[in-house]
Structure formats: structure tokens, C-alpha cells
Amino acid sequence: MVTATIIGCGGCGNKAAIALLENKVIDMDHVRLLNTTSRDVPDEYKSNSDLFMLFSKDNRGTGKQCDTGRSSMINALRDGAQEVILVSSVEGGSGSGAVPVLAKYFASTKIPVHVFAFIGFQEDARSINNTIKFFKSLPPEVILHTIKNSHFLDYTKNYNKAEIAANNEFVYEVDTMLGH
Question: Whole-prediction pTM value?
């Protein structure tokens, strides 16, 4: 069985990767949570420095500034993976800024790269602009998977429940991809 490394970048990516852990799809040894804020990470994961890496002195996040997220997290690269799964939102700062750079790096090492891109609720111009930049920045070698949070609003009008449903879809897809 292929051993994958899941790298959750930014708030959305962290929540999705944590959903994999909590659903026992993958163990903590194969997950990394990268962020410029610890706001989105439950306390039980914050204390594990092998799992969660904070790349900001002030713990404030990047406020949808992709360049800041990219430069903060590029140093988080890990070697030795047979396959890499990168996961983030396409609308935010830290994850959407870092994932294209990480994808290019891992693709250049000939490691198979899957990018799970969560498309949020498309509610503001900055989010839509970041989405376009994200997809344009990905290298052609990656295997792209998209999950659209707003799709789940068809089943519930509650944004939190839609986000949970999107994370559950991610868990199902990764679980299937890993052959479980």
C-alpha cells in the first residue's frame, strides 16, 4: 500500500486533514498541519510539534494575503514521501498561497502530487480572485481534486454544516484513494 503524506495548509486544509485523522483514515505520522495561525486547530493537535507547525510570530494568520502565506510555509517541506496529498482552500491566504509552491516542489522531485482544492462559498471578489490565481499557479503534473463547499448548501442552508459535509466528502475520497 502506498504511504501518502497529507499536508493541510491554512485553516481549510487543517480542518480537512483533521477530519481524516478523526475518521481514522490516516494516522498522525502521515499528516502535517501548516498554518500562520492556530485559531483553526483544536487544542489536542496544537501541542504536537510533529503534526502542527505554526509559521508566524504573532499567530494572526495572513488575512487572505497569499504571498505572506507562501513565504511563511515554504520551509515546511518534508522529504521521504512516496506520494503527497496537499489540501487547502482556494480562496484564503496561507493555504492557497502555499499549495501551488509546494505542488511545484514535490512535482519537481517526481513524487506523485494530489491537490485537493476546497472551493468555498464564492461570496467576495478577493476570494474569487484568489481562486483564479490558485488554479493558474498549479503545475500541470498534479492530480487535481475539487470539492465545492457551496454544493452542500443544496442540502442545508447552514454554512458550518456545509463545511462539515465537504470535509466528510474529502475523507471519503482520500479513504477510497488510499485503498481502504
Answer: 0.69
